[in-house]
């Protein structure tokens, strides 16, 4: 990093007391004169080097002092921690650089990091750390997290032709349905009072709850205070298909034929309320509706509710059941759906592929069990990773199309990393939103290349396996991102035989790839119609609690 200091220029509030100690130096106003003796700390270039250390070189000729700065992170030296596109230096190279600058008449200093910082950014005051202690999913690959993860690693997909009579005559008849009768998983009497989206949510949330070591009977049986537990669910339309069915009955058979539970089964908030009812969670039951970013935003909101002490535990994720004739017809009218079909033997959902032509509509649910770190430690919970941060932005561009510049995605990514107390060089993988639409995939690729540099971060996209689960996509893909951190493997992107030209992303294809070790942050992206952008940041590493 280069800095110029002019003794005559007033200091702005931004630079007077800069807290970003990794790359910035506070200007003191001290005069630097030509020929002044060089000052070098005693440890100098020969010192033991650790992450969080900095080397600075200050030119001492002329009225302006120009400083260069390198910071050590993940064993290498970066000129700018938020510009990973620039090639870092190794330890021998930084020593050679420091020696060269000394010989050129620079003032060179080695700034050793404080012994307790471990090279990490200081935690924000008043914020509790949030960890993931349970996972749950029901997807087109099957019931449970195990089926999801194995299907992703195997490169399988759950997309099929829709052969029901209700789909006859539709221009597109390809979808990704959960391959099980939900009445086998939800008691029939209870299922009759719930829309399909709520049923999916209940199955996934209960798995996450039990995966976290909690009693399926509920909060009290698990030894938890019900008032300190919350639910946060993302969904787009909830039970809108119930309303469509009610309208059909009204038109065909009159008002008395409309079921009395039509209204409570229609509202999007039914999923959150049913999870709350099933586990006796009384802290809060929140619903987020922000198009296809809903699931990720619901998780982000739950992180903040725990961070700032509103609750200690939260079930957070997304759910959706939108594979219905009316919605399929609507998406087809937008020309948003893939027309490739499954006859070719490969998935018709082809993220980042040269021949991609739209998404495949799907259904499912995915949930994380989130806890305050101290709460998880107190009960001896297994921890998958830290739910480190999240970021939002809005494109303000078009009712449905993404901003082709990727500017909104860029902002959401940077905000998520900053919220996690991290820098861009800490990011080692991105789980892309990539729905296989021509414009959407390109906008995301442009943004990722702009933020991280072309081809520098391994990227995967899971909608080739799952289809687009709409409001559930962020929840299910967050589960996959957590498992990527736990197992150290990035699932491959399927359906992309040949990548589109000019994407500039390092797309993982063919087989799983080992997760890089030179960092600790994984991002999961979700973007929705209307310019809703949400990014989740997850961190691996020891948190002082049992890790399974």
Automatic annotation (TrEMBL):
One of its GO terms (biological process) is fatty acid biosynthetic process. Keywords: Acyltransferase, Transferase. Residues 1-47 are annotated as: Disordered. InterPro entries: Beta-ketoacyl_synthase, Ketoacyl_synth_AS, Ketoacyl_synth_C, Ketoacyl_synth_N, PKS_Beta-ketoAc_synthase_dom, Thiolase-like. SUPFAM superfamilies: Thiolase-like. Residues 127-540 form the Ketosynthase family 3 (KS3) domain. GO terms for cellular component: cytosol. It comes from the Bacteria. The keyword Transport does not apply. CDD domains: KAS_I_II. SMART domains: PKS_KS. GO terms for molecular function: 3-oxoacyl-[acyl-carrier-protein] synthase activity. It holds the Pfam family Ketoacyl-synt_C. NCBIfam families: PRK07314.1 (NF005589). Belongs to the thiolase-like superfamily. Beta-ketoacyl-ACP synthases family. This is 3-oxoacyl-[acyl-carrier-protein] synthase 2. It comes from Streptomyces aurantiacus. The lineage of its organism: Bacteria, Bacillati, Actinomycetota, Actinomycetes, Kitasatosporales.
């Amino acid at each position: 990093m280069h800095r110029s200091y002019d003794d005559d220029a007033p200091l702005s509030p931004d630079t007077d007391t800069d807290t970003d100690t990794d790359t910035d130096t506070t200007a003191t106003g001290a005069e630097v004169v030509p020929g002044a003796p060089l000052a070098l700390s005693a440890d100098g270039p020969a010192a033991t080097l650790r992450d969080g250390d900095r080397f600075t070189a200050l030119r001492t000729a002329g009225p302006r002092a120009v400083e260069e700065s390198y910071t050590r992170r993940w064993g290498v030296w970066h000129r700018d921690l938020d510009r990973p596109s620039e090639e870092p230096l190794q330890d021998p190279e930084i020593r050679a650089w420091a020696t060269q600058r000394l010989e050129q008449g620079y003032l060179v200093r080695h700034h050793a990091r404080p012994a307790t910082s471990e090279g990490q950014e200081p935690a924000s005051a008043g914020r509790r750390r949030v960890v993931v202690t349970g996972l749950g999913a029901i997807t087109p690959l099957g019931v449970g997290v195990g089926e999801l993860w194995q299907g992703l690693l195997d490169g399988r997909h759950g997309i099929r032709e829709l052969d029901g009579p209700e789909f006859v005559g539709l221009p597109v008849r390809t979808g990704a349905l959960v391959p099980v009768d939900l009445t086998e998983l939800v008691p029939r009497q209870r299922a009759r009072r719930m829309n399909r989206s709520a049923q999916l949510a209940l199955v996934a949330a209960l798995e996450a709850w039990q995966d976290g070591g909690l009693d399926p009977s509920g909060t009290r049986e698990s030894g938890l205070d019900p008032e300190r537990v919350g639910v946060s669910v993302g969904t787009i339309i909830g039970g809108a298909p119930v309303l469509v069915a009610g309208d059909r009955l009204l038109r065909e058979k009159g008002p008395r034929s409309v079921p009395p539970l039509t209204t409570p089964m229609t509202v999007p908030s039914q999923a959150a309320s049913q999870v709350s009812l099933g586990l006796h969670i009384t802290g809060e039951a929140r619903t987020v509706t922000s198009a296809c970013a809903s699931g990720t935003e619901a998780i982000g909101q739950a992180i903040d509710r725990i961070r700032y002490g509103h609750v200690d535990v939260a079930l957070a994720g997304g759910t959706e059941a939108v594979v219905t004739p009316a919605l399929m017809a609507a998406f087809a009218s937008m020309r948003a759906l893939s027309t490739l079909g499954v006859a070719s033997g490969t998935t018709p959902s082809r993220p980042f592929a040269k021949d991609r032509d739209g998404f495949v509509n799907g259904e499912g649910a995915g949930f994380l069990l989130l806890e305050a770190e101290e709460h998880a430690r107190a009960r001896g919970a297994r921890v998958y990773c830290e739910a480190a941060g999240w970021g939002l932005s809005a494109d303000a561009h078009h009712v449905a199309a993404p901003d082709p510049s990727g500017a909104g995605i860029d902002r959401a990514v940077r905000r998520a990393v900053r919220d996690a107390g991290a820098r861009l060089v800490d990011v080692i993988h991105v789980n892309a939103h990539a729905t296989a639409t021509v414009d959407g995939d390109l906008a995301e690729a442009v943004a990722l290349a702009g933020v991280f540099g072309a081809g520098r971060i391994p990227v995967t996209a899971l909608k080739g396996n799952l289809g687009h689960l709409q409001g559930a996509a962020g929840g299910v893909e967050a589960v996959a991102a957590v498992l990527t951190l736990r197992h150290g493997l990035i699932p491959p992107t399927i359906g992309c035989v040949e990548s589109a030209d000019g994407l500039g992303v390092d797309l993982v294809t063919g087989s799983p790839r080992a997760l890089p070790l030179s960092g600790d942050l994984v991002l999961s992206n979700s973007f929705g119609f209307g310019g809703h952008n949400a990014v989740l940041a997850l961190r691996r590493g020891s948190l002082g609690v049992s890790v399974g």
